[in-house]
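Write out this protein's structure.
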Amino acid sequence: QVQLVESGGGSVQAGGSLRLSCVGSGYSRNCMAWFRQAPGHEREGVAIINTASGGAHVVDSVKGRFTISRGSAKNTVYLLMTSLRPEDTAVYYCAASLGSCGSLSEYEFNYWGQGTQVTVSS
């Protein structure tokens, strides 16, 4: 059974930082990503990483502020979020793909965590 478990969400003031963690189990592919969904908005991809090669990409809206990285344990990824803004407020989801890790489309991802809330106050 595949499981993705996120942790690390919380409430911070603008300019603060948080680190999200995701631990996956039950699958053996190498593509993991972070998505987020704000109230009234569609879910959007934030960052993607190939956990075998370490190759990673973050979207322009968070570039320079968010960093995705892999852990030493298999199927573990982190999202370090700095200089947080109120518009970063959302539920953040970890996801895993059985595909080639070439796209941040949510339709390319097969497994999802339950989500963790991040709230940034001004």
